[in-house]
Amino acid sequence: MNDSSSKSPHQNRLRSLYNQVETAVAPKADAIVASADFLTTVNTVIRLRRTIGSVIANAEAGLLHLANIPSATDIRRLHRQIGALDYEIRLLRLATTHPDPGPTETENSK
Question: 91, CA 20 to 30 Å: which among 9, 14, 83, 108?
Answer without folding.
Answer: 108
